[in-house]
Amino acid sequence: MCTVCGCGTGSVEAAGGRGHDHAHDHAHEHSHDHDHDHGHAHQHDHDHVHADGTVHRHSHSHAHAHVHVHAHPHDHDHDHERLHADGVPHEHPHDHDHHHHHHHVHGPDGAFDYGAGAGSASVPGLSQARIVRIERDILAQNDAHARDNRARLASAGVFALNLVSSPGSGKTTLLVRAIQDLAGRLPVVVIEGDQQTSNDAARIRATGAPAIQINTGKGCHLDAHMVGHALEQLPLAAGGVLFVENVGNLVCPAAFDLGEAHKVVVLSVTEGEDKPL
Questions:
Q1: Distance of alpha carbon 187 from alpha carbon 183, whole angstroms
Q2: CB neighbours of 139 closer than 8 A, spacing ≥ 6?
């Protein structure tokens, strides 16, 4: 998941005018295994588009621990010349044996399986146990925020759905039609997740439903912390429905609980039947 996918600094943007700055710390850990660790915290700016068009800016230090631990063994021969008292140079070669560790399994057909092992991923120099520990820490922090979101939604009497799909599968089009069909029957609010632009939120607001756009920049999914801030800006009416349209990606969004009642996977018939299933 995000330990190795490159999901990093994200800028969550929104259309509007006024903004508010907040700082939140979630650690991005980069450890380099040369008998010492370097931890680096990276800030992520998130702008939320309010239902009225105002900009709400947050600075997040995300819990995605991108760990790049490198044990670099290289075989090097270093020649050092020493000048003796007689003025004659003598060469002394020195061998340094370094090893690169990559976790993969060779299949019977010669294929490389880098998803083998407890961590289901391969990061050079990073053990499977370390990968598992980091991912558990990331998800534990997200799950705590998700529990808060779920409690808030339950208290407000709002039913939440998290829509996930690959890019361009029709999530926004489906939402527009659903909002039109529910008009006058149920109050609907929407959180739109995308890497760039507020186009989707504009389409939703055109139906009359309040919508907040969260732009994740390089981030490949929404997380519960982002959604929690968006909930603060939405009118949550009892008996209503919250639709969360996640970033177009069938991988990482599946791992992050946002506090929803259910995830809804949207599939397009033109995608084929292999990867989505």
A1: 8
A2: 255, 256
Please give the Cα distance from 164 to 186 (Å, whole number).
22
The CATH class given to the 11-67+145-271 domain equals: alpha beta
- Which whole-number Å values give the CA distances from 168 to 7, 71, 172, 200, in the listed order? 20, 40, 9, 12
Sequence length of the chain is: 277
- Kindly report the pTM of this predicted structure: 0.61
Tokens 């209503």 belong to which residue?
A: 240
Over residues 128-133, mean pLDDT:
78
For the record, the structure tokens of 197 come out as: 């632009």
Domain residues of the chain, as ranges?
A: 11-67+145-271, 76-113
Contact by Cβ (8 Å): 51, 235: yes
CA 5 to chain centre: 8
Question: pLDDT-derived band of residue 233, with 50, 70 and 90 as boundaries?
Answer: very high
Candidates 191, 197, 188, 200; CA nearest to 223 is 191
> Do residues 97 and 73 touch, judged by C-beta distance below 8 A?
yes
Question: What does the alpha-carbon distance between residue 7 and residue 238 come to, in Å, rounded to a whole number?
Answer: 35
